[in-house]
UniProtKB/TrEMBL annotation:
PROSITE patterns, alphabetized: HTH_GNTR
Protein name: Transcriptional regulator, GntR family
Entry's Gene Ontology molecular function annotations: 2-aminoadipate transaminase activity; DNA binding; DNA-binding transcription factor activity; pyridoxal phosphate binding
SUPFAM superfamilies referenced in this protein's UniProt entry, alphabetically: PLP-dependent transferases (SSF53383), Winged helix' DNA-binding domain (SSF46785)
Keywords of the record: Aminotransferase, DNA-binding, Pyridoxal phosphate, Transcription, Transcription regulation, Transferase
Pfam families: Aminotran_1_2, GntR
All residue ranges annotated as the HTH gntR-type domain in the record: 21-89
Family of this protein: In the C-terminal section; belongs to the class-I pyridoxal-phosphate-dependent aminotransferase family.
E.C. code: 2.6.1.39
Family matches, as InterPro entries: Aminotransferase_I/II_large, HTH_trans_reg/aminotransferase, PyrdxlP-dep_Trfase, PyrdxlP-dep_Trfase_major, Tscrpt_reg_HTH_GntR, WH-like_DNA-bd_sf, WH_DNA-bd_sf
Top-level taxon of origin: Bacteria
């Protein structure tokens, strides 16, 4: 048994008066930690309350409270006229005392004591930078959202007595009210013919793809994607064990003849497409090819996973209706995001599919997102019913169209000698191919030195193509001017 005065209590009891946790609980928790790790062996007599108080320079009553807490939790035995002792374990085997210098109690273990599976497929591809200006792949400008109005809607729903029962109710199936309004919204805006029973509410497009992959894909099955496709979705397919094969993309979208040739040679399980604005090239799948793909899916029995990426952001003419609107054989699973023009916390994802698939998808959603967000869905449902979502989108579309036009004019004015691009009919990004050989990684590093960050996920360079996806939606006109000026100077430095 160690003497109370020989144990280095000050080495493993550290008091922080800025914490919300009371001092006596800090002491008791750290003493418990010391017992668990073997710093205080079974049978060790703890210092008297006055002695430990003087040692730690705190009031004796605080130590009394800490010892009482230890006794209440069963860690010590308080013997009258003898003192406080660490309880002996049931197996009566004393701990081996350790040196405080060998094992610092204040440091959490740097690694596990067990092995586990590691994935290189899911390494985070996203980069961050402290640069003032950043190109992204086309995200909305949060500064355009009416935060005060959104927060007032949410607050009103929390205070509404009729909603109080919903706050304590776990409902991974989602708000019936929201699903009803969302189905109406999708029927009107996308030409669908669905009811609320055909909708699953998710947190994001990526969650939608993950759930679909878990149910629809098995290891070794073939998934077709565009020659250049959304990297996060590809990571999900690879995680499911599927084999990915790319299909050429041209000015009319995915090459349907190439899809047919692959289907005639081998079994295809799924085709993933973003037909409205293909990621990353922004091209729109032609009407003729849409019909052809639906025919191929019915003929060869593969699933079309249709992502309505950037469907709401269309400027020059009415958007082309999705494949799901013309699907009569149940071959299309339609996924997307709702509220992209709102603040990030007010956005949600969805899946549209036949009811038999919905039953299985709800099972999987119940495992990974049992609680859901019933209040947020109530707010979004009201925004649809009251027409707020239409007003938000109409107002933001006007701004984004002006930004697209100005961004395209800047590219034409400063970089027409170096870049080929076409002003996109929708979306929040421009796809630009470089006319002359240029090292895009070096270009990115040069821009970063001048306060402009271009992530690697926007750089496309191989033996056949050198291109860049440049988001403009989050820039004001002044920010565009500065960013293009930095990019232009970086190009000149490589000539």
């Amino acid at each position: 048994m160690a003497s109370p005065v020989s144990v280095p209590y000050q080495s493993f009891i550290q008091i922080d008066r800025n914490l919300d946790c009371s001092v006596y609980l800090q002491i008791s928790n750290q003493l418990i930690n010391a017992i668990q790790r073997g710093f205080l062996t079974a049978g060790t007599k703890l210092p008297g309350t006055r002695t430990l108080g003087n040692l730690l320079q705190i009031h004796r009553n605080t130590i009394v409270a800490a010892y009482d807490e230890l006794h209440a939790q069963g860690w010590v035995d308080m013997r009258p006229n003898q003192g406080t002792f660490v309880l002996v374990k049931s197996d009566d085997k004393p701990y081996k005392i350790r040196s405080a210098q060998q094992n610092q109690l204040a440091v959490y273990p740097s690694s596990t004591g067990y092995s586990f599976r590691k994935s290189i497929l899911l390494d985070n591809p996203f980069e961050h930078s402290a640069c003032e200006y950043v190109f992204n792949d086309g995200i909305p400008d949060i500064r355009l959202t009416q935060i005060d109005h959104l927060s007032s809607l949410y607050s009103a729903n929390l205070k509404r007595k009729s909603n109080h029962k919903k706050l304590g109710y776990y409902n991974h199936d989602g708000s019936e009210y929201f699903k009803k309004n969302l189905s109406n919204y999708l029927n009107l805006s996308r030409g669908l013919h669905i009811s609320k029973d055909n909708i699953l509410i998710t947190r994001s497009t990526e969650m939608s793809v993950y759930i679909a992959s878990e149910i629809l894909l098995s290891a070794g099955e073939l998934v077709l994607v565009g020659e250049m496709s959304y990297f996060s979705v590809n990571m999900i397919f690879q995680k499911s064990g599927a084999h990915i094969m790319s299909v050429p993309i041209d000015e009319e979208g995915i090459d349907v003849d190439a899809v047919r040739e692959i289907c005639e040679r081998q079994q295809v399980r799924m085709l993933y497409i973003t037909p409205h604005h293909h990621y990353p090239t922004t091209v729109t799948l032609s009407a003729e090819r849409r019909i052809a793909l639906l025919d191929l899916a019915s003929q060869f029995g593969f699933i079309i996973l249709e992502d309505d990426y950037d469907y709401d952001f269309h400027y020059d003419k009415a958007p082309v209706l999705p494949l799901a609107s013309a699907d009569t054989n149940g071959m299309v699973v339609y996924i997307g995001s709702f509220g992209k023009s709102l603040a990030p916390g007010f956005r949600t994802g969805f899946i549209v599919a036949p009811q038999n698939l919905m039953i299985e998808m709800r099972k999987h959603l119940g495992i990974i997102d049992r609680q859901g967000d019933i209040m947020m869905e109530q707010v979004l449902g009201e925004m649809i019913e009251e027409g707020d979502i239409h007003r938000y989108l109409k107002k933001s579309l006007k701004v984004y169209q002006e930004r697209r036009d100005y961004f395209a004019s800047l590219l034409e004015q400063h970089l027409h000698e170096y870049l080929d691009f076409r002003k996109p009919s929708g979306g929040l990004a421009v796809w630009a191919t470089w006319k002359q050989p240029i090292n895009l990684l070096q270009l990115s590093r040069s821009c970063a030195r001048n306060n402009l960050f271009i992530p690697r996920t926007l750089l496309y360079q191989n033996v056949s193509i050198t291109a860049t996806r440049l988001g403009f939606g989050h820039f004001t006109t002044a920010e565009m001017e500065e960013s293009i000026a930095i990019l232009y100077q970086a190009v000149l430095s490589q000539q």
